[in-house]
Design brief:
By secondary structure, the chain is α+β, with helices and mostly antiparallel strands. Helix 5 crosses helix 6. 44% of the residues lie in helices and 14% in strands. The protein is rod-shaped.
Length: 719
C-alpha cells in the first residue's frame, strides 16, 4: 500500500499555508465513503472532498473552537477575540445594555452621540475595565428592552440572553443577575455587586399624635391591672393592720395604763400610703408590724418593676415615630390578598418565584400569576408608580431599591432579603474576555473603587429623607404638645378637683360649726315663749301649733308649691283644732300641781326669775322639791314633749317621710320625747337614738329632774 502512495505538496497561495495531500492509487480504497470527526470522508480523483478543519485554542482546562476552515471557503473565525492579546487597543467590542437607573442612564443635558450619551454606575465600571483589559467598545441598547428569561411555551430565550446566544454582541452590562438558567446558556464574570430580593412599599401615613400618648408604653390591660392591684393592696393593708396587734399604739405614751389605742392605717391612710409608694414619693406612714411590712415590701417591689418598665419604654414611644405597616415581611404579604404585589416582567426576580420550591414563594407566585390585571410591570419606573398609588408592593433587587428610597421619602423597604445573588457582566458561551474581565473586577473590588462608584451613584446628596443615624436622632428629639399634652390636662383636672373638694370641706365645716341661733333659725322665739307660758285664750294657743308646724316644714327644706298648699291646709286645720282642745283640757288638769312647764334649756322654757328664786331657797327645800318633782315626772310627761309627740302622730299619716324626719329633728330637743320616756310612741316605727344623730340630751333644771347629767353644750347640726 505504501508503495502505491505518492506524496505531493501543494502550496495554497491564497492562505500562504502548506497542506499535505495524499493521493490513493488503489482503486478499492478510493471508493471508501464514511463519516469522520472532520466530516464525511469521500474522495474524488484521489483527493478528499467535502470536509472542514476546526481551529482550536487551548484554554485553562480544554481546547476551545475559535473557527473553521473549508476547501474553497477558507478560514471562518467565530471568536475574533481569541486572536488578540490583552493590551491591543485596536479591538472594539459590541456591548449591549438596558436603560435603568442608576446603572445606565441617558445624559439629560447637552447633545451627545455614541458612547458619550450614556452615564451611570455600569458605564463608569465599563470604562475602568476596558482600560485595564485593553479593548474598545460600542454601546447599544437591546431591541426588546428585556434582560432575558426562558419561555416554556416557545422554548426560547429573549432579551439580552438571546442576543448573546446568537453571538450578536460581545458583552452585556447592567443589573444582570447571575442565576442557574442563564449560566447554562451564556457565561458570566465574577459578580461586581452582591444583593437580594426585597419588598418596596409605600410609607404608611403616620397617625396624628394623641393627647394621652404618654400612656402608650403600657397596654390598657396593664393599666387596669395596676389600678386593681392598687385597690387590692390598699384594702389588704387596712385589714392586716387591723388584725395585727402591733399596729395598735397608745396615743398618750405618758399614760402607760391608758385603755385607748389607735391605728395609723385607717382606710384613707392605707390608700394614701399605697399611692405615695406607687408615685415613688413615699408618705409619713411607716408599717411597724411584720405582716404590714411584708405587704408594703411586696408592693414596693411591684412598683419598682412597673415604674422601671414604664420609664424605659416612655422615651421610645414618645420620641420615635412609630409607623404601623400592614405588612412586615414576605410571609405577611403571602397571607393576605388586599395588597397586590408583583415583579419586573421577564426578569430574574420573576424567575426566582417561578422556580422556587419554598412554599411561601410558591404561594406568592400563584397569586401573581393569576392576579388580574397583571401585577408584572415592563419597567422599574412603572412599578414605582404603582407603589406610590397605594395597595401595591413591588418585589425587586435590593440595590435598586436602596437607590429609590434614598430619593423618594414616600417609599421604604419592608423586611429583609429573600435571597442572595449577584450582578455580573454577561458574555457569550466560551468568550475569551470573561476571565480577563473577572480578574479586572476582583482588582477593582480590592482597591475599593467599586465601593466608591456605589457611593457616587447611590448616596443622595443632602440626605433629604434623613435616613442616616444623625438624621434619625435629630428627628427623635422633638416633642410637642400633641405628644405629652395629656399630662397638662391631667394636672389641670387634678387641680380643679382639689379646689372642688376644698370648697366642699369649707361648706361642710361651716355648717357643722354654725352657731345654734343660725342653725336652728327654723324654730322661732314664738315657739319658746308659747312653751314657757301657755295662755288660756284660743288664738295664742292655736298659734303655738302653727309655729311648731312651720318649724317642721322649714327644717326639712321642703318647698311646697301653690297647687298643694290649699289641699293640705284643710285637713291640717281640723287636726290642729282637735289637738288644741285635747291639750287645753289636759293642760287645765295638770296646771295646778305644775308650777312651771318642764321644757328643755335649749327651748329656754324656764324663765330667769324662776331660776333666781330657786337659787335662793335653802338646801333642804331644794331636796324636797326635787323629790316631789321626780315623783311627778314618773307619773306624767312633760307638756311640751307630749305636744310635740301628738303633733307628729297626727302628721304621720298625712305628711311625707321627709316631713316626718323634719318633725323628728325639731322635736328631739324637747326633753322626754321620745327616748326620755320609754312609753312614748316611736317615730316612723322605730325608737329614735339621739346619740346616733349627734344631738345630746338637754338636762332640765335641778328642781325638775336631778337624775339627768348635763352634757357639754352642743348645738344640733341638723344633719
Amino acid at each position: 500500500l505504501t508503495s502505491n502512495i505518492q506524496f505531493r505538496n501543494r502550496i495554497d497561495d491564497s492562505r500562504n499555508k502548506i497542506f499535505p495531500t495524499i493521493i490513493f492509487t488503489t482503486s478499492s480504497f478510493l471508493q471508501v465513503e464514511m463519516k469522520g470527526i472532520s466530516g464525511p470522508i469521500e474522495f474524488k480523483e484521489g483527493r478528499r472532498i467535502q470536509f472542514k478543519l476546526d481551529l482550536l485554542k487551548l484554554r485553562q482546562h480544554s481546547l476551545v473552537k475559535v473557527g473553521e476552515w473549508r476547501p474553497g471557503a477558507g478560514v471562518n473565525v467565530t471568536d475574533t477575540a481569541a486572536f488578540f492579546e490583552p493590551g491591543s487597543a485596536n479591538v472594539t467590542l459590541l456591548v449591549i445594555t438596558i436603560l435603568e437607573q442608576p446603572y445606565v442612564m441617558l445624559k439629560s443635558r447637552g447633545n451627545f452621540s455614541g458612547n458619550a450619551r450614556y452615564e451611570g454606575f455600569c458605564i463608569d465600571l465599563l470604562k475602568e475595565i476596558a482600560h485595564m483589559v485593553g479593548f474598545g467598545y460600542r454601546i447599544e441598547l437591546v431591541p426588546d428592552g428585556k434582560y432575558g428569561v426562558y419561555d416554556y411555551e416557545t422554548g426560547e430565550w429573549n432579551g439580552i440572553v438571546r442576543q448573546l446566544m446568537d453571538k450578536k454582541a460581545d458583552l452585556a452590562v447592567g443589573s444582570m443577575t447571575i442565576n442557574y438558567a442563564r449560566e447554562s446558556v451564556i457565561d458570566f464574570t465574577k459578580p461586581f455587586m452582591n444583593l437580594g430580593i426585597s419588598i418596596l412599599f409605600k410609607v404608611p401615613t403616620s397617625h396624628p399624635a394623641r393627647l394621652f400618648s404618654f400612656m402608650n408604653p403600657l397596654a390598657i390591660q396593664i393599666w387596669l391591672y395596676v389600678l386593681a392591684a392598687y385597690v387590692l393592696v390598699s384594702v389588704m393593708m387596712f385589714v392586716v393592720a387591723r388584725i395585727s396587734p402591733y399596729e395598735w399604739n397608745n396615743p398618750h405614751p405618758c399614760h402607760a395604763g391608758s385603755e385607748i389605742v389607735e391605728n395609723q392605717f385607717s382606710l384613707a391612710n392605707s390608700f394614701w400610703f399605697t399611692i405615695g409608694t406607687l408615685m415613688q414619693q413615699g408618705s409619713d406612714l411607716n408599717p411597724k408590724a411584720t405582716s404590714t411590712r411584708i405587704v408594703g415590701g411586696i408592693w414596693w417591689f411591684f412598683t419598682l418593676i412597673i415604674i422601671s418598665s414604664y420609664t424605659a419604654n416612655l422615651a421610645a414611644f414618645l420620641t420615635v415615630e412609630r409607623m404601623i405597616t400592614p405588612i412586615e415581611n414576605a410571609e405577611d404579604l403571602a397571607s393576605q390578598t388586599d395588597i397586590a404585589y408583583g415583579t419586573l416582567d421577564s426578569g430574574s426576580t420573576m424567575t426566582f418565584f417561578r422556580d422556587s420550591m419554598i412554599e411561601t414563594y410558591k404561594k406568592m407566585w400563584r397569586f401573581m400569576e393569576n392576579k388580574k390585571p397583571s401585577v408584572f410591570v415592563p419597567t422599574y419606573e412603572e412599578g414605582i408608580q404603582r407603589v406610590l398609588q397605594g395597595d401595591y408592593a413591588f418585589l425587586m433587587e435590593s440595590t435598586m431599591l436602596d437607590y429609590i428610597v434614598q430619593r423618594d421619602c414616600n417609599l421604604t423597604q419592608i423586611g429583609g432579603l429573600l435571597d442572595s445573588k449577584g450582578y455580573g457582566i454577561a458574555t457569550p458561551m466560551g468568550s475569551p474576555w470573561r476571565d480577563k474581565i473577572s480578574l479586572a473586577i476582583l482588582e477593582l473590588q480590592e482597591k475599593g473603587e467599586i465601593q466608591m462608584l456605589y457611593d457616587k451613584w447611590w448616596k443622595s446628596p443632602g440626605d433629604t429623607c434623613m435616613r442616616t443615624e444623625k438624621g434619625k436622632e435629630s428627628k427623635a428629639n422633638s416633642l410637642g404638645v400633641d405628644n405629652i399634652g395629656g399630662v397638662f390636662v391631667v394636672l389641670l383636672c387634678g387641680l380643679a378637683f382639689a379646689v372642688l373638694i376644698a370648697i366642699f370641706e369649707f361648706c361642710y365645716n361651716t355648717r357643722r360649726n354654725m352657731p345654734a341661733e343660725r342653725k336652728r333659725k327654723t324654730c322661732p322665739k314664738t315657739f319658746e315663749s308659747k312653751c314657757t307660758s301657755v295662755v288660756d285664750d284660743f288664738p295664742s294657743f292655736f298659734f303655738f301649733f302653727l309655729t311648731f308646724d312651720a318649724c317642721c316644714r322649714v327644717s326639712r327644706r321642703a318647698e311646697v308649691s301653690k297647687s298643694t298648699v290649699l289641699p293640705q291646709m284643710v285637713p291640717a286645720f281640723f287636726i290642729r283644732s282637735l289637738l288644741f282642745f285635747r291639750f287645753r283640757a289636759k293642760f287645765e288638769t295638770q296646771r295646778a300641781p305644775i308650777s312651771t312647764p318642764a321644757c328643755s334649756d335649749s327651748l329656754q322654757g324656764i324663765s330667769q326669775s324662776v331660776q333666781q328664786q330657786q337659787q335662793q331657797q335653802t338646801q333642804q327645800q331644794q331636796q324636797q322639791q326635787q323629790q316631789q318633782q321626780q315623783q311627778a315626772n314618773q307619773q306624767q310627761e312633760s307638756l311640751c314633749s307630749e305636744m310635740a309627740r301628738e303633733l307628729c302622730r297626727a302628721l304621720r299619716c298625712h305628711a311625707s317621710s321627709r316631713r316626718r324626719r323634719a318633725c323628728e329633728k325639731c322635736s328631739t330637743h324637747v326633753l322626754g320625747y321620745p327616748p326620755d320616756n320609754p312609753t312614748a310612741t316611736p317615730l316612723n316605727g322605730m325608737r329614735s337614738q339621739r346619740s346616733s344623730l349627734g344631738v345630746p340630751t338637754v338636762e332640765l333644771p335641778p328642781h325638775v329632774h336631778m337624775h339627768h347629767h348635763a352634757p357639754p353644750p352642743h348645738d344640733y347640726d341638723g344633719t
